[in-house]
């Protein structure tokens, strides 16, 4: 605490000019109020902020698309933040709206992640937790995806990205949306692997006469590390890719809400996962109220493997939805490496210029 206080005079505290959410709402409200106003024939007649008034904001120029929002910048003689907005403010809103389909499909793509992590602990409690003479607590398995993530991240950044960069010409080896898609594909594979491992665990329990047992099933808990490895790939690709996608596309004034949007996506995904469990149980229950896939505390009598397959199918559908929107998204910033004019290679000092 003392070290933190001692550094206060050296901190740069850049006060926000206004709330990004407020600016978006102002554009939507102003455009709705002036929905019957005609757009000028010359776009230069729309209101734009000057360089002096911009402050820390990035001045953006008008683009095609969402023309109805341009009406928020039409000067009708009335002033006020909820009546007249600048083109920069309108373009900030357009950028966010163009990314909304990606965010919505990402919500569906992340649903299996918390579910697999939660159910894995319950599965591990029933399995053989021995590692030589030691007994490993299933709860400690959560460290495995973290370790995998650390290793995969180093391998990805140091070896895979430079290799792909030479082939594709992109700074990150692949585009941000391609990186996110790889993560969603890994989620599907992880869910399928989880279903296969769970089916194998239940088969061993039946063959060993341990269907009613809650522990001691003779199958190693380390079979669960396969799905954890795949979840580590998800962390390195889609998690990081989604943040990089937002920060590279959003304007300077909107970057502050990037992490908030990301964690909102994770939160909504977790909530939808809980809802999916409730729906699956209700649909699969017998008339007497028993027999749901995930009812009870005995996984050996449940149908967790079928639930995993259901997740895999839903993830496949969400991946197709994501590919549909991602293939139609137009980047605001080109991610290609600019070749050096003399030798057609990237600069020798290690810096990378982006168009």
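Q: What amino acid sequence fits the structure above?
A:
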């Amino acid at each position: 605490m003392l070290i933190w206080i001692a550094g206060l005079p050296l901190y740069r505290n850049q006060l926000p000019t206004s709330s990004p959410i407020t600016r978006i709402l102002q554009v939507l409200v102003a455009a709705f109020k002036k929905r019957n106003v005609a757009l000028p024939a010359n776009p230069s007649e729309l209101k734009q902020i000057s360089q002096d008034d911009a402050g820390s904001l990035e001045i953006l120029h008008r683009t095609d698309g969402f023309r109805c929002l341009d009406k928020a910048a039409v000067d009708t003689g009335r002033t006020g933040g909820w009546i007249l907005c600048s083109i920069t403010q309108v373009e900030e809103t357009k950028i966010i709206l163009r990314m909304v389909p990606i965010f919505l499909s990402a919500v569906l793509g992340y649903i299996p992640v918390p579910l697999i992590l939660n159910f894995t602990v319950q599965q591990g409690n029933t399995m053989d937790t021995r590692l030589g003479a030691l007994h490993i607590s299933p709860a400690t398995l959560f460290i495995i995806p973290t370790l995998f993530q650390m290793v995969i991240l180093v391998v990805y950044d140091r070896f895979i990205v430079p290799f792909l960069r030479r082939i594709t010409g992109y700074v990150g080896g692949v585009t941000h949306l391609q990186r996110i898609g790889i993560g969603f594909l890994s989620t599907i594979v992880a869910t399928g692997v989880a279903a296969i491992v769970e089916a194998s665990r239940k088969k061993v329990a039946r063959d060993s006469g341990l269907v009613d047992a809650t522990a001691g099933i003779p199958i190693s808990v380390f079979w669960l590390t396969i799905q954890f490895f795949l979840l580590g790939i998800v962390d390195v690709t889609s998690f990081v890719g989604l943040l990089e996608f937002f920060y590279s596309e959003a304007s300077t004034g909107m970057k502050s809400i990037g992490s908030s949007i990301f964690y909102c996506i994770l939160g909504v995904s977790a909530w939808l996962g809980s809802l999916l469990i409730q729906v699956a149980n209700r649909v699969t229950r017998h008339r007497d109220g028993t027999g749901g896939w995930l009812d009870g505390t005995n996984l050996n009598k449940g149908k967790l493997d079928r639930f995993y397959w259901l997740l895999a199918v839903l993830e496949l559908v969400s991946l197709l939805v994501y590919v549909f929107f991602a293939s139609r998204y137009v980047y605001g910033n080109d991610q290609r490496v600019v070749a050096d004019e003399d030798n057609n290679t990237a600069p020798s000092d290690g810096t990378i210029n982006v168009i």
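Q: And what stands out in the fold?
A: Strands lie at 127-128, 130-131, 134-135, 217-220.
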